[in-house]
Specification:
Blueprint: E1 5-13, E2 18-27, E3 33-36, H1 37-43, E4 48-56, E5 60-73, E6 81-89, E7 127-129, H2 131-137, E8 138-144, E9 150-155, E10 158-163, E11 178-181, H3 183-199, H4 206-218, E12 220-221, E13 227-228, H5 246-262, H6 264-279, H7 286-290, H8 296-304, E14 306-307, E15 310-311, H9 318-334, H10 347-360
Parallel strand pairs: 2-7, 3-6
Antiparallel strand pairs: 1-2, 1-5, 3-7, 4-5, 4-11, 5-6, 8-9, 9-10, 12-13, 14-15
Helix pairs in contact: 5-6, 8-9
């Protein structure tokens, strides 16, 4: 037993549930209170999202994501209640005590209403009460054993024991918890991310500014709907005199597609990066914006239901599916894009697409 850690038994209650005999660890060395995931689910407690870390010995730490409010009361004084804000952890400690201990030879101890009458037997701890509530539960009354090795302290939940009990030498587990919710740091990072798109222009080099200007002044759309964009060349090689790069670029692209098809993990990561470019406005879905008045349904689907170059959408009726197919085909054709490899759970819809494709050939 440690002078700063005592196991007690509590009654817990919420608006809809009451449970008695919940073991808790009283630890004034902890800056916050904690509760196990098991108790949170058992009581059906409402969680509050938090972002913090629990620091422990050896420079270790655990991330915490939720906190709950619990009302606890003593089996001896039900009118005395304490509200606790506790952070949720998957588990708190191993069995406490770690092994069966001998009940001390102290006659007065038998007359005291103990916070945990079964303190000598190992048991699971589902809640830890830290220094944030320690002062609230202490009451007047302190007793010391005749040998001076044990101390009994009166609390709202009954008498708690601390001190040393003579037993065989064993390795002791020491628990110390520290929590820090980094709200200021999190908020700072949030604002930095929010402001980043507005500060991109300020960080552009002269060469990058020339690229922006080239795209703005030379990008056009042909009569067949295709977009034409002039590529910028560095001044050291304006005419690409060191060789043609078109065939090399095509081979690189085909090699990349082949590699991604064989590695789903790499493919997902590649697609995630492209999605991030879209989120940061480094890429835009231009065709859907220009043709939204002419093809409203297809424009909406293009903006919301594409995963990189794969369209994944759905509808409730076969008629709607045919409308989507026709509009999407026409919209993409205006930009010179041909949709291929259609698939559906409706076989008649698939047959219709195959028939249309054969007629076009």
């Amino acid at each position: 037993m440690s002078p700063e850690e005592e196991v007690i038994t509590l009654n817990l209650s919420t608006l809809t549930h009451e449970f008695s005999g919940i073991p808790a660890l009283l630890d004034q060395g902890s800056q916050a209170s904690f509760v196990s995931e098991h108790i949170v689910q058992l009581l059906g407690l409402k969680r509050t999202n938090v972002n913090g870390k629990v620091s422990c010995l050896g420079d270790g730490h655990l991330n915490i994501k939720h906190a709950v409010n619990i009302e606890i009361e003593s089996r001896y004084e039900p009118v005395g209640k304490v509200c606790v804000n506790a952070y949720v952890l998957k588990s708190l400690t191993s069995l406490l005590p770690s092994r069966e201990v001998c009940i001390p030879d102290w006659l007065e101890l038998k007359t005291l209403p103990l916070a945990d009458p079964e303190f000598s037997s190992p048991g699971k701890v589902d809640m830890l009460l830290g220094a944030d509530v320690y002062g609230e539960i202490l009451q007047n009354g302190v007793k010391k054993s005749p040998h001076g090795n044990l101390l009994a302290q009166n609390t709202l939940f009954g008498w708690i024991l601390s001190g040393k009990i003579e037993q065989e030498s064993v390795k002791e587990n020491i628990l110390n918890l520290h929590v820090q919710v980094r709200e200021d740091e999190l908020l700072k990072k949030f604002w930095e991310i929010e402001n980043e798109p507005n500060s991109i222009e300020k960080r552009l080099t002269e060469e990058e500014k020339l690229c922006e200007k080239l795209y703005e002044e030379t990008t056009l759309r042909r009569k067949d709907g295709r977009f034409v964009v002039r590529l910028p060349f560095k001044t050291i090689d304006p005419q690409c005199q060191y060789g043609q790069s078109y065939d090399i670029a095509i081979n690189k692209l085909l090699s990349l597609e082949k590699r991604l098809s064989k590695n789903p993990t790499l493919s997902n990561e590649y697609h995630r990066v492209l999605e991030e470019y879209t989120t940061l406005n480094h890429m835009k879905q231009t065709l859907a914006v220009l043709e939204k008045d002419k093809f409203p349904v297809a424009a909406h689907i293009t903006k919301n239901d594409y995963y990189v170059d794969d369209l994944m959408t759905g509808c409730e009726t076969e008629t709607e599916a045919l409308q989507i197919y026709e509009e999407m085909t026409e919209l993409m054709n205006t930009g010179g894009f041909e949709l291929q490899k259609w698939s559906s759970s409706n076989q008649r819809f698939v047959n219709y697409i195959c028939e249309v494709s054969d007629n076009r050939k």
